[in-house]
Amino acid sequence: AVSVFQAARVTDPTCAAAYAGLAHAKVDQATNRHVLVEAFGEAKAAALRAVALDHESSDAQAALGLVMLVAEWDWIAAERSFQRALAINPNHAEAYLHYGYLMEAPGDLERGFQLKLQGLECDSTSALAHVQIAGSFWNQRRYDDVIAWANKALDRNPHHLIARQLLGAAHWKMGEILRRHWVAVG
Length: 186
Hints:
It is a single chain. The chain is built from 11 helices and no strands. The chain is mainly alpha-helical. α2 packs antiparallel against α3. The chain is globular. The chain starts with a helix and ends with a helix.
């Protein structure tokens, strides 16, 4: 995805969506590949460029919110960006999902969960929405629901790493992995 958005940026350096997409891809890269400093810096630069090019772009605002949340840990700026994205486009699924994640971080599990459900309403096919909801159930220690929602995410994307991690962790928390091991060994 990074190379596609970089190519789009070269083709049209004034396209805010290309910079917003690059910011999202770089955050994913940093989170999943542990290339934190460089990728987060590039994500922030791309998000800021997207907002500079089009401050009325909900994608740009959501991308900046995500960067502020996971790279900068600036929760006030992240919330402001997510609220701005939703003011521009009240159907922006990712803005709801990431905003929900932000609300859960300091412990507002109910508000975070409700925001994520709104994101799911905006895009019911999104594997990310299903994973985020599974994460909400994890925070609530509702492991049966984690398993159900992680499986829904895997139905949409069989290779989703976080869905697989949540699924395994929920089974482990329920004692199923250990129980299976001892039955197989015994």
